[in-house]
Specification:
Blueprint (H helix, E strand, L loop, with lengths): L10 H17 L12 H4 L11 E2 L4 E2 L2 E3 L2 E4 L4 E3 L7
Antiparallel strand pairs: 1-2, 3-4, 4-5
């Protein structure tokens, strides 16, 4: 699997979303990384090495990231699409 985007109801559900697939993928010799959330409390539950490199909790800066061809700005909660028109 390459990228994934999910939405959950609360911090506890997100932590489960992090732990369960991470354990499953580890049993297959794979590693889940580049986790990102628009909720700082969630990111504090994820080891820094597993978070997207664009997250800096000390500076409160979160930059846009591209996932599944969609640009997501976690701080603003906005998605951006840049469709290409075939000629």
């Amino acid at each position: 699997m390459d990228d994934s985007m999910d939405s959950v109801a609360n911090i506890s559900a997100y932590v489960d979303l992090y732990k369960q697939p991470s354990q499953l993928w580890a049993s297959a010799g794979e590693y889940a990384r580049k986790w990102l959330s628009n909720t700082p409390e969630v990111l504090k539950c994820i080891p820094p090495g597993d978070c997207a490199s664009s997250v800096d909790m000390d500076k409160d800066q979160q930059h846009s990231v591209k996932t599944l061809g969609v640009l997501w700005d976690p701080k603003e909660g906005k998605f951006t699409l840049s469709p290409s028109v075939a000629s």
